[in-house]
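Why predict the complex rather than its parts? Because the way molecules touch one another can change local conformation, and only a joint prediction can capture that. The input here totals 635 residues.
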Amino acid sequence: MKTTSQLLSHHQSLEETQAGYHKALAEKYPEHADVFNKLAKDNRRHMEMAQRAYREGVTDAFEVGFLAEELDPTNYMLEEPSGDLATTVKTMISNEEKIIEFCVDAASNSSKLLPDVPETFERLVKRKKRSIEKMKELA
Amino acid sequence: MVVLEEPLKKIIKIKNYIDGDWIESESDEKRDIINPAKLKKIAEVPEGCAEDVKMAVDAASDAFPSWRKTTPLTRARYFFRLKELLEENFETLARVCTMEHGKIIDESRGEIRRGIENVEVAAGIPSLMMGYNLEDISRGIDEILIKQPLGVFACIAPFNFPFMVPLWFMPTAVATGNTYILKPSPWTPLSMVKFMELVDEAGFPPGVINMVHGNVAPVQEILRNPEVKGVSFVGSTHIGRDIIYKEAAATGKRVQAQCGAKNHLVVMPDADIESTIPSLLSSFFGNTGQRCLAGANLVMVGDDEAWVKSTLDKIKDAASKIKIGYGLEEGIQMGPLQAEHRKERVLGYIEKGVEEGAKLVMDGRKYDSSGYPEKCFLGPSVFEGVTTDMTIAREEIFGPVMSVMRVANLDEAIKTINKSEYGNAASVFTNSGKTGRRFQYEVECGNIGVNIGTAAPMAFFPFSGMKDSFFGDLHGQGRDAVDFFTESKVVIQRWP
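Output of the joint prediction:
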């Protein structure tokens, strides 16, 4: 990934995938539906926060096409959860950590570009750490 | 790599938009609009004629009295509605821009955002258009200044920012109560076609905003028609100075002609190189160098050979990694030039640079266009050893070419910039506030960047420019634009 557009598209795909997993888990574990639905909502909100930072701040004049280092999307692949609740939660935490890793790398590689985008990724890292705490409570 | 879906699925037969209707041009001649990355025809646009413009002028003149009486608040509401429609169609507009121009999707989205910002500013017209007053200028006598619209205005737009540039002018012109004729570039008319579909949907009264396509004949009629009160132009210095400015003045029109450029980017030894390099790359090679604010001459200051070499090596290394291809592929960092003849022009300058003795250390003629037809593509080129007398240091190339010059100190850098006949933009990269201030104080350019590679003014500031880069008095955007599109009328009153 070399451009801001690619960063944002990949982030969107990660959050949407994770939101989809959370929605499916809400159906599979109705006793925890509130938590999983909330986590799915958070994923969508995170996606919207990043998209908004980009769409509102993007301008032809800044360096949106030039990231500091190329990022490899295969470093941030998510795994579909399966198995019992404990295993599922473990997978979902690992996924959320992958997204955090992506956000950290995206923030540092776009730090010389549109300031709103890296700042938003940094905020998402904090929010996601809170999501992980909620997930741990389930297990 | 992800290729974004193209919003245009079939060849568009472009029509004029006059008096609230889409109508065929009176001209039978057509021009093909080609996607420069794929060399695929995407539209047909009429060459246009004087009759088309006369119809548009009639419609705009008829619409003016009623639009002028529409309150500024109501006029602003049309722009709020338009803004919503633009946001809803943001991505489609960006992709159309990439399809017809070739710029990468990030750049197109930036262009759409910049255009929308002008609509947002125009929505504030009830405040922006206020005059001023003073009571008792003499005992019992008050004086007020009111700003009034003048009538029909027109814009002659360039190919390089097909969406944004018309919006530097039209929203302010119309929000202040004038009526309008847009003449998009005949090379890139589709962005404005999509825009006018939204203008139509926003419900502007018929005749308030019109669009006429074409090339020379419509421009001549715009310039000669006495009903057109003012013209905004963006393009080359030759056309702006020798044709637009002179001919429009012959019928007493107001003119703002934003023209060519040769922008210098000065790197001081104390600059933060890591943050400077992405700025330089974007300025020199962004939009494939087809910006009037693009960096052209890189001025390295000082005699620290190791620092200069290491900086230039970093620039060349980063430039060599720029991925070239179709702008709708998300990882592409530089698209094609907009048309084949534009590439030929740049190639001519590269040859000229070599002939005149500059050292071509990165040859953009060797490139990989990621499998797309090569006709319009060109890689980034870097010349070293460029001196101020060389053609490539003086003339506008309008392509991805960086000419590296060396100067001893800031004095010499400022002298070099001020020697240029152009005065569009200049930037300095430094960690010294003193250097930055001196640069902004002494450099004879309208748009100054301090640690900014592309000093593009926002919608609420004028897009400045001086010397051979601008002809007229009041610039596009900001308060200048409000003054350009209104007459200042002074009323002195006494009630005995």
